[in-house]
Amino acid sequence: MSPSLIANNDTKFHSVALYLVWVLLLGLLLPLTAGMIITLEHERRELEEGLADFHQETLKTLVESTEDAMLSFSPEGVSNTVQFLLRDERIVSIEVFSAIFDLYLMKVSKEIFEQQFDSVTLREVVSKDGEELGYVQVTVDRSWIVPRIEAERNSIFLLFLAMFLGALLLVLPTIYFKILKPLNRLKKQAEVLSAGELGIACEWQGRDELSMLGRTLDDMRSRLDENFKTMKDIAVTDELTGLPNRRGFNSEVARLMYLSSRYNHPLSIAMLDLDYFKEVNDTYGHGMGDEVLIEFSRLVCSRIRNTDLFARIGGEEFILVMPETSVKVAAQVLFELKEVVAQNVFPHGKKLTVSIGMTEYSGVENVGQLLETADKALYEAKEKGRDRVVVYPAPALI
Q1: Are residues 136 and 10 in the same domain?
Q2: What is the DSSP string of 245-290?
Q3: Please, are residues 79 and 112 in contact by the beta-carbon 8 Å criterion?
Q4: Residue 187 lies in a domain
Q5: For this UniProt entry, which segments traverse the membrane (predicted)?
Q6: Is residue 157 part of a domain?
Q7: Dihedral of CA 291/297/300/305: which sign?
Q8: Residues 100 and 205 in one domain
Q9: Secondary structure (3-state) at 201
Q10: Residue 113 and residue 136: Cα distance in Å, rounded?
């Protein structure tokens, strides 16, 4: 994956997180703000309606208490009522006018030049038995509701702020642990898969959709890992005998040669070739030839160590690498192996022999040079009559 594509993926991931945050904030703020506005408007209307009701009740009370005073023109009859009503901060002024005497019985106002009110006035005619006695007028301060609305607004704001913060405290951890954190794990899991690190498992415990997706990705990783291991095994394994093939041999022998050179330990290598194997194929067919090769592989594997490397490099040719083994010890092992092969009856009902050429790694050759030396020893074994072990470069017939 290119760096630019990875960067784009990171940007998209972060945009998802930002998108969720914005959706969360809007999802909480919009209804809370709407609720706060509606509640505040409701409180304002209640205050206004309450002020209007108070205005009407005050006017009614004043009308009831001034009828007799208007008939007798007795200001003292309304003074106590007016003084009591004026104690209420909502009332700005009160007028009581007698139409009979064409005079004010009472006219009181709180307004002064330095203080003006946003007032509203109501007037009602006072009559008795159809005769107009006068009127009463009450003015109230409409701005009285302003500080109450502000106080209500502050209270409502604090209430909805507490609700908003409480919702955030509840929702944000849920968003983080249920969405953002799993998304981040999925992102890292995908990066691991993209990097080809198929051996790194990622366990998911939840039952939600993201956990199911994570388990699906891990199952896919596991299957890919198994498939790649199978493909790798196929690539380095001889299908017929199950031994390493040439590719498998090359990858492993380099490691063994490195260890031998580093620790100055002996390492011997031999090339083995079944004598007259072509006659088996020509006489009994390739199917029987395959059975013979399988039997030969079994015989050799039964006589060598688990630490030895035995590979089929083609046809009836095999290679045996023996780490921690000097050429003298290896020659003895190979001689015994040659005798076991010669005494064995193979699937076609006959005995076969094997020719072996071997050499010892000096610590300076490369793989190609080492194989070339062993091949020369094998060629010499063939030339000298087969069914023998030849050590090279210091030839010694065993």
Answers
A1: yes
A2: -HHHHHHHHHHHHHHHHHHT--EEEEEEEETTHHHHHHHH-HHHHH
A3: no
A4: no
A5: 20-40, 156-177
A6: no
A7: negative
A8: no
A9: coil
A10: 24
- Shortest CA distance to 315 belongs to which of 246, 254, 251? 246
Which two structure tokens, joined as six digits, stand for 196? Answer: 């080809």
What tokens appear for 319 in the block?
């290679």
How much of the chain exceeds pLDDT 90, in percent? Answer: 46
Cβ burial, residue 353 (10 Å; 0-12/13-18/19+): middle
202 is in which domain, residue-wise? 196-236
Residue 247, pLDDT > 70, answer: yes
- Interacting residues of 86 by C-beta distance below 8 A, sequence separation 6+: 94, 108, 110
The letter for the amino acid at 306 is N
Domain count across the chain: 3
Residue 88, helix vs strand vs coil: coil
- CA angle at 59 for the pair 53 and 61, rounded to the nearest 5°: 100
The strand pairing partners of 121, in sequence order, are: 139
Are residue 9 and residue 131 in the same domain, yes or no? yes
Burial of 13 (0-12, 13-18, 19+ CB in 10 A): middle
Within 13 Å and on the Cβ side, how many CA atoms surround 52? 6
Pairing mode of beta strands 267-274, 396-397: unpaired
Query: What pLDDT does 18 receive?
Result: 76
Q: Quick check: bond before 147 cis, omega within 30?
A: no
Fill in the amino acid letter for 305.
Answer: R
pLDDT at position 5, please?
40
- d(CA 177, CA 205) in angstroms, rounded, equals 13
Residue 14's pLDDT is 57
β 389-391/354-360 pair status? parallel
- 209-236 helix and 246-263 helix, angle to the nearest 10 degrees: 90
User: Can you list the pairs that 123-128 forms with residues at least 24 positions away whose Cβ atoms lie under 8 Å?
Assistant: 124/59, 124/60, 124/63, 126/63, 126/66, 126/67, 126/70, 128/67, 128/71
With a cut of 50, say whether residue 396 has pLDDT above it.
no
How far is the C-alpha of 82 from the C-alpha of 58, rounded, in Å? 10
Alpha-carbon span 70 to 105, nearest angstrom: 7
Of the ranges 30-39, 96-105, 336-345, the best mean pLDDT one: 336-345
